[in-house]
Specification:
The chain has six helices and eight strands, in the order βααβββαβααβαββ. It has 210 residues and is α/β, with parallel strands linked by helices. GO terms for molecular function: GTP binding; hydrolase activity; structural constituent of cytoskeleton. InterPro entries: Alpha_tubulin, Tub_FtsZ_C, Tubulin, Tubulin/FtsZ-like_C, Tubulin/FtsZ_2-layer-sand-dom, Tubulin/FtsZ_GTPase_sf.
């Protein structure tokens, strides 16, 4: 019977802490010590007959490394693995962490910590005006804006923001009422945070009223 490989991916604080408990148990069950070497007593299993290699990969040095990844946006919990009792069990590349967490907010983690880190100011500003990214029941492309406030946070400069807004103003899908042609207010918060942007205080007037 062929042996399948099982890769465990532990994400976030709960995932990492659960992973710690699981791999401590796996090591006890398979006779593997905190350094990845076999404890005295158990003999090395046959890779073709024993499910040992489903969970562990045996390196050229004879150490047994879990088939696992630990991932978290901030390093605190992953650091517990890096300095804990089983720190010698994992390869450093298996322990992945960022610098700031998402404060238990899925949307913040998904959109501002991961997705937006790779986008420019223009791309983020454009994304703010995509109908699928807005929490409104109407399609703004079928009406006109009365006012719009753009809030930026992170590594952003006024020059890039002004250029992005100028680009938005040239699009037919984003139009303002005649009696408020400028329409935009902006605010920027400096800091070492990943770049992100939000649209708020946005009012859309449907075409018949314009």
């Amino acid at each position: 019977m062929s042996i399948r490989e099982c890769i465990s991916i532990h994400v976030g604080q709960a995932g990492v802490q659960t992973g710690n408990a699981c791999w401590e148990l796996f090591c006890l069950e398979h006779g593997v010590g905190p350094d990845g070497a076999f404890l005295e007593g158990p003999t090395e299993p046959n890779s073709r007959e024993d499910p040992f290699n489903t969970f562990f990969n045996t390196g050229s040095s004879g150490r047994h490394v879990p088939r696992a990844l630990y991932v978290d946006l901030e390093p605190t919990v992953v650091d517990e693995v890096r300095v804990g009792r089983y720190r010698g069990l994992f390869h450093p590349e298996q322990l992945i962490s960022g610098k700031e967490d998402a404060a238990n907010n899925y949307a913040r983690g998904h959109y501002t910590k991961a997705y937006h880190e790779q986008l420019t100011v223009l791309e983020i500003t454009s994304a703010c005006f995509e109908p699928l990214n807005q929490m409104v029941k109407c399609d703004p492309r079928h009406g006109k804006y009365m006012a719009c406030c753009l809030l930026y946070r992170g590594d952003v400069v006024p020059k890039d923001v002004n250029a992005a807004i100028a680009n938005i103003k040239t699009r037919r899908s984003v139009q303002f009422v005649d009696w408020c042609p400028t329409g935009f207010k902006r605010n920027m918060t400096d800091g070492t945070f990943p770049l992100c942007a939000y649209v708020c205080v946005m009012t859309v007037v449907l075409s018949p009223l314009c």
